[in-house]
Specification:
Blueprint: E1 10-14, H1 19-30, E2 34-39, H2 41-44, E3 53-57, H3 63-77, E4 80-85, H4 100-125, E5 131-136, H5 151-169, E6 174-181, H6 187-193, H7 200-203, H8 222-233, E7 244-247
Parallel strand pairs: 1-2, 1-4, 2-3, 4-5, 5-6, 6-7
Helix pairs in contact: 1-8, 3-4, 4-5
The structure holds 1,4-dihydronicotinamide adenine dinucleotide (NAI).
Protein name: 2,3-dihydro-2,3-dihydroxybenzoate dehydrogenase
Keywords: Oxidoreductase
GO molecular function, one term: 2,3-dihydro-2,3-dihydroxybenzoate dehydrogenase activity
Length: 254
């Protein structure tokens, strides 16, 4: 079955310059949508040129800039039917060693940024009575983790934020879902495990910390995450809202 609902439609992506964000932008464009793709300036400096994709700088922690970017996207591309929050940063350190400023930064980007972006998208979609919003959470939202600072807490709260938004927006015909990846081969993941020998031995080799914990025995590719994202944004997911879709090779429920 071919996914539909993208041809001639407009989408907005925050965190579009990252590994998962880029894959989602490419998938949306390939499906026929035009896309307003935003991220921090340094993250889009080398963004690929794709037909129908407009790259723009945006810091999701700035609510006024987020509102302005969504308004600009609508002015340039027309009513937004698809909105994605894919920005995120890691949390840093064991909790007893965690600096309060880093805790705050993680909450500001992963949670409050998600609020700014999904609120702006919901406001833009509400007058049209249609649309699909997707936030990229994490399978870390449901499993306590050691040494990841405020990251799991920020993601757990983001999951709940999107469920509440979904409940409020359902009567308006707007669906809101969470996509929860497990370990995925992006700069965030490779950066976490790199050592003086590089990250390949740990990520791909026999020493892989990840493979032992993933029933399917492999890390996700950004494209795996993007394909699931496209489904949640498509007409075929028309009865799916307030859902958490785990794309983690079975790691959460093993
Ligand atoms: P990434 O590091 O490649 O992408 C994250 C993007 O967020 C970057 O482009 C970064 O510039 C952007 N960002 C950070 N702060 C921002 C801000 N203030 N304003 C706007 N953009 C900002 O990492 P990846 O893997 O593509 O991550 C995408 C999402 O997937 C994140 O929310 C991450 O937490 C989540 N995720 C990733 C997993 C993985 O293994 N790679 C596993 C589970 C969840």
């Amino acid at each position: 079955m071919r996914l539909t609902g993208f041809e001639g439609s407009a989408g907005f992506v925050a965190g579009a310059g990252g590994g998962i964000g880029r894959a989602i932008v490419a998938a949306l464009a390939e499906a026929g949508a035009t896309v307003f793709a935003t991220d921090l300036p340094e993250a889009i400096a080398d963004a690929p040129e794709i037909d129908g994709v407009f790259w723009a700088p945006l810091d999701v922690t700035d609510p006024e800039a987020v509102d302005a970017a969504v308004a600009e996207a609508e002015a340039r591309l027309g009513p937004l039917r698809h909105g994605v929050f894919a920005a995120g940063i890691l949390g840093g350190a064991p909790l007893l060693e965690l600096d309060a400023a880093l805790w705050q930064k993680v909450i500001d980007v992963n949670l409050t940024g998600g609020f700014h972006v999904t609120r702006a998208l919901g406001r833009a979609m509400a007058p049209h009575g249609a649309g699909a919003i997707l936030a990229v959470g994490s399978n870390a939202a449901g499993i306590p983790r050691v040494g990841m600072g405020g990251y799991p807490a920020s993601k757990a709260a983001l999951h709940m934020l999107i469920r509440c938004l979904g409940l409020e927006l359902a009567p308006l015909g707007i669906r809101c879902n969470i996509l929860a990846p497990g370990s995925t081969l992006t700069p965030m993941q490779t950066g976490m495990w790199a050592d003086e020998n590089g990250a390949a031995r740990i990520i791909e080799g026999d020493l892989s910390i990840h493979k032992t914990g993933i029933p399917l025995g492999k890390l996700a590719r950004p494209e795996d995450i993007a394909e699931a994202a496209l489904f949640l944004l498509s007409d075929q997911a028309g009865h799916v809202t307030m859902a958490d879709l785990y794309v983690d090779g079975g790691a959460t429920l093993k």
